[in-house]
Amino acid sequence: KIGLLEYFDFMEPSLAVTSSHVPKSCFLHYQLSPVKLVRGYRQYLLSDEGVRYLDCANTVAHVGHCHPKIVEAGLKYFEQVTIPVDETGFYKKYCDELTKDLPPSFDTVLFVASGSESNDLAIQMAQKYVGAEDVVSVAGSFYGDVSFSNFVSSKTSKDQRLVPKSWVHNIPCPETCRKWTLDKNKAGEFYAQQGIKQMKDLINKGKKISCFITEPILTTCGVVVPPSGWLCILANYVSSIKGLMIMDETNTGLGRTGSSMWGFQSSGICPDIITVGKPLASGYPVAAVITSSAIFQALGMDKNNFYPSPLSTMIGMCTLDVIKEENLLHQAKVIGKLILDKLLILKEKYYTIGDVRGVGMIIGVEIVHDRRQLDLRPYPKMAQEIVYGMKENKIIISTEGEHKNVLIMLPSLIFTEEEVDLLISSFDSVFCALHQIEDIPFEKYRRIIIENVIAANKLKVPLLSDDVD
């Protein structure tokens, strides 16, 4: 109605522009058969060819694409003032609303434009406050692609072949899918002690740790839900050595877990700094660092540098209003559980599904070679084929994890049962098309299982399926 499609008709072909101006190292989401998206509404995206796709991958559209209330607020305030200004009633109200579920110590909110910037700022604050440089993060994680956050993200450091920084240290990701010999009740303690040992070794070498940065649920590691106790044990240790805890809530906050406003709140810990990216304004470039005034003051910067524009403030406020008015925490809990339950049924049907895991609207499906044979080696080729198969069914998903073998879904919180049925039926048809389901007698693999268990009992450390092979 407003001529957007007509405008796109006059644009240069996107692929030609991409090949001319974008480095080849920057891959498209569908590199083999790109999709040109021209608009979005609620949980759907529309291509230039008029094809409608169900969006299960774009995490920043927290309450859906182009929510009417957010669009109305944006248009209204875009006609007024768009530059950052001194504190206003709207600014204070927004900060109060954003921090109302947090302890009183979180009295300072600093606004930036992206999650990358928020993590970058948080790391700098921690280093200044503690008076130390070294940063600890989780292997395979992603915290941004600017300056400090880029080097701390082992995912981008590896992908971009960055020269490792001596002040960046990675502790093991607490995944349990392929650690099948590890007692799940002891996994949290096991991984936490591994991380603590690494930190103690650093301290013995004269290093001083400024902070530990992590997500409450490790989304870019492949939706790894940390085993019980892991986060709490590490947080207590970091506190004991006077380091700070930074919690990246970009993919887990604002009710996405379905149980609380912030993902860390179900873990029994309280971080020193919270960061959140563009989901804060459902895709509009607003992000935030939430901390105490004491930690911020150590940075030595003027708070005026971090005021949002009234436009940003109102879009952020509207996002919080929609979450509350549409009861999206409850919806994330109910719909998320429904997706997980239906995926678990598919897991019993398809042996390449090694694990189904997640919390609320944070869902991961790990693709392996053959779960029946305990061959839990990552199967990224199959995962990629599933992504393209789902694309043919007009559903957008993505892959994450160290081996890119985990199908990841972080849809908007407005997902309904209708979309769940569409998602699951599409998964079913794609899996069925990609491999033949065979009823192989369990006895065929009984000897393998027994031998693996005997071998595991003789060792002190958990085995990968690769080690057993």
UniProtKB/TrEMBL annotation:
Keywords: Pyridoxal phosphate
Keyword Transcription: no
Official protein name in the record: Uncharacterized protein
Family classification: Belongs to the class-III pyridoxal-phosphate-dependent aminotransferase family.
Pfam families: Aminotran_3 (PF00202)
Matching Gene3D superfamilies: Aspartate Aminotransferase, domain 1 (3.90.1150.10), Type I PLP-dependent aspartate aminotransferase-like (Major domain) (3.40.640.10)
Taxonomic placement: Eukaryota, Metazoa, Ecdysozoa, Arthropoda, Crustacea
Protein species of origin: Argulus foliaceus
An annotated GO cellular component: mitochondrion
Gene Ontology terms for molecular function: pyridoxal phosphate binding; transaminase activity
InterPro entries: Aminotrans_3, PyrdxlP-dep_Trfase, PyrdxlP-dep_Trfase_major, PyrdxlP-dep_Trfase_small
Transmembrane segments: none
